[in-house]
Specification:
With about 500 residues, the chain is of the alpha/beta class. The protein is built from 16 helices and 13 strands. It is globular. The chain binds beta-D-glucopyranose. Beta-D-glucopyranose binds near residues 177, 214, 237, 238 and 297. InterPro entries: ATPase_NBD, Hexokinase, Hexokinase_BS, Hexokinase_C, Hexokinase_N. Pathway: Carbohydrate degradation; glycolysis; D-glyceraldehyde 3-phosphate and glycerone phosphate from D-glucose: step 1/4.
Length: about 500
């Protein structure tokens, strides 16, 4: 991608200084095709390292104990719990078979206080919310089938933080992300902490499964799209999981053929060795709650995109290249510029950028922007947003490349490039196998769903890394509410395997 194509024609009313600064910034934020390729190779290398050792690696590559995928015929009623940000969702999912399901759900707000409170307090809040949901929604009358045969409700818990799993219903928290920092959780078993809180609060619920939201998203999508290979989140945070051949998981011996691996890709390139990290990213990282962690997440996800943009805008203001050198109290505040403003600005196709002017006035207290100011603000959003989409595609492509070169997609004849130097995988006639079913990538998250052009920018980069057939073979699809439905499916998988082994 050529960043200069985003800069205005030389007859535009930009000063020399504006043009010079913006050219520098555009260069810093541009991820070329060659860079995408280098990053993909490095990513695959890190995946393999993470799969081969117990020593902590930048990509944790966590075995999830979720083997196999649902096929849409599963039945039963399960509770699902989804905690990954400021909202806690409690759901009752009724799987009806034939790819049909029904959901009842209620959201509860996890206050700023609770996000930093002792973990026992957080878990008591969760238990109380489940209790309230069961009573207020008359859940017992809606159950069509009690999976365990007793009147205990089985629950799947989507917990969207890095957890080292030891079984489908056990796992210890490695670290908090996304602004959470509750003492007493890191190093402890999340299922046990929740089960204790449920028992303490007399809630007759059994925690049957613990999963990451990426795995939930993949499972939920599988219920309606067979051949779902990747589950990814591009929202407040980011992460991806994929189906790995268990022979590649050197850290354990397993009976099954395939297992979902939670890559925890937000921590890719922890040492900042290959990502195109700018001074604006470094500033954000330094001021964050978890400096030096989740570097990749901080370049991609909704929690951070606005802050990177704000850092760039302040730099331009300080160089008198924007708003005549004047900021506002609002724009000077940490996190004041949100990713949702970028969405509005990027979607603003009006000639005088009216909607951009409105965002600047209403939310940032900047009342006197010129046309050039607004063009610059839009350009900065485009640069930050495009980089995020291209890096998101790179990580997705790396998971697919690992599957094609060494994992569960090997020998399946997909017409995709597996590395820069290899020819595309083609059959004897020089074509890819057109009869192959598409490879589904299940995606949830506000950035993918709402950020303008994110999906098409991802597809462009996928083609650059995986070759021209990528657009036909790889299907990026929204899996809304993957966390809820996926948790229920994981609870089903867990209870069925317990019943089967009895
Ligand atoms: C967490 C992941 C999660 C992702 C998306 C990241 O901050 O570390 O576990 O999957 O956010 O919610």
């Amino acid at each position: 991608m050529d960043s200069s194509s985003l800069l205005p024609k030389s007859n535009a009313k930009w000063t020399e200084r504006q043009r010079r600064l913006l050219t520098e910034i555009a260069n810093d934020f541009t991820v070329s095709t060659e860079k995408l390729e280098t990053l993909t190779q490095q990513f695959v290398h890190q995946m393999r390292l993470g799969l081969s050792t117990h020593d902590p690696q930048e990509l944790a590559m966590i075995p999830t104990f979720v083997t196999g995928r649902p096929d849409g015929h599963e039945r039963g009623s399960y509770l699902a719990l989804d905690l990954g940000g400021t909202n806690l969702r409690v759901c009752l999912i009724t799987l009806k078979g034939n790819h049909q399901l029904e959901t009842h759900q209620k959201a509860y707000t996890v206050s700023d206080y609770l996000q930093q409170a002792d973990v026992a307090e957080l878990m008591d809040f969760i238990a109380a919310s489940i209790k309230e949901f069961i009573y207020s929604e008359h859940i017992s009358s809606k159950i069509v089938e009690h999976p365990s045969g007793s009147d205990t409700l089985e629950l799947g818990f989507t917990f969207s933080f890095p957890v080292s799993q030891t079984a489908i219903d056990a796992g210890t928290l490695l670290r908090w992300t996304k602004g959470f920092d509750c003492p007493g959780a890191v190093g402890n078993d999340i299922v046990m902490l929740l089960q204790l809180a449920l028992d303490r609060n007399d809630v007759n619920v059994h925690v049957a499964a613990l999963i990451n939201d990426t795995v939930g998203t993949a499972l939920a999508h599988s219920y309606s799209h067979s051949n779902t290979f990747v589950g990814a989140i591009f929202g407040t945070g980011t992460n991806g999981a994929y189906l790995e051949d268990t022979r590649n998981i050197k850290t354990m011996t397993l009976d099954s053929n395939d297992m979902f691996i939670n890559t925890e890709w937000g921590n890719f390139d922890k040492g900042k060795n290959c990502l195109p990290v700018t001074i604006f990213d470094n500033k954000l990282d330094r001021e964050s709650i978890n400096p030096s962690f989740q570097i990749f997440e901080k370049m991609i996800s909704g929690m951070y995109l606005g802050e990177i943009t704000r850092n760039v805008l302040l730099h331009l203001i300080d160089h008198r290249a924007l708003f005549d050198g004047a900021s506002s109290t609002q724009l000077n505040m940490h996190s004041a510029f949100e990713a949702k403003f970028m969405s509005v600005i990027e979607a603003d196709d009006s000639e005088s950028l009216n909607r951009t002017a409105r965002v600047l006035e209403r939310y940032l207290d900047i009342h006197l922007s010129t046309q050039t100011d607004r063009e610059i603000v839009k350009l900065v959003c485009q640069l930050v947003g495009t980089r995020a989409a291209r890096l998101s595609a790179m990580a997705t492509a790396a998971l697919i490349r690992q599957g094609l070169e060494a994992g569960s997609l090997r020998n399946q004849g997909y017409p995709l490039k597996t590395s820069l130097h290899s020819e595309e995988s083609v059959d004897q006639n020089g074509n890819g196998d057109a009869s192959r079913p598409p490879l589904h990538v299940a995606i949830d998250g506000s950035v993918f769903e709402h950020y303008p052009h994110f999906e098409e920018r991802m597809y462009d980069a996928l083609v650059e890394v995986l070759g021209k057939h990528a657009k036909d073979v790889v299907k990026l699809g929204i899996a809304r509410d993957g966390s809820g439905v996926g948790a229920a499916l994981a609870a089903l998988i867990a209870t069925k395997s317990v019943t089967n082994s009895r």
